[in-house]
Every structure is written in structure tokens, then in C-alpha cells.
Amino acid sequence: MDESNIVQNVVQRVDEVESRLAFQDDHIQQLNDIITKLQLEVMTLHERLSHSERRLQELTPSLLKPLEEETPPPHY
User: Fold this and answer.
1) Which residues contact residue 9 at a Cβ distance below 8 angstroms, ignoring those fewer than 6 apart?
2) Distance CA 68, CA 32 (A)
């Protein structure tokens, strides 16, 4: 191999590495966008769940009588 072939080979390999790096950068950005979107969805769902839990706790006491007000079952 002469020197020009070696230089050409190195240039070709650098071009290939740059191409792969650009592809990986693009792919990483796409994954980051997806993760960001999913994080926002998780936060929204968490807020909705918390709201539902609070609402359920507000409603639950009105649905159940205190134990001392409950009538005993018929077999007592």
C-alpha cells in the first residue's frame, strides 16, 4: 500500500465514523424527545390519579356509616 492509498483509506474511515456519529446523534435526539413526551404523560397521569384519590377519599365517608351506626347483621 502506498501513502496515497493509506490516506484515502483513513479519509474513508473518518467519513464513515462521521456518518455513524450523525446518525447516532439524530437517533439520540429522537429518543430524548420520546422520553420527554412520556415524562409529561406520566406527570399528567400522576396528577389525575392524585386528584381521583382525593375525590374518592372525599366521597367514601359519605358512602359508609360509622361502625357504631351500622345495624348488626341479621344472624346476630
Assistant:
1) 1
2) 56
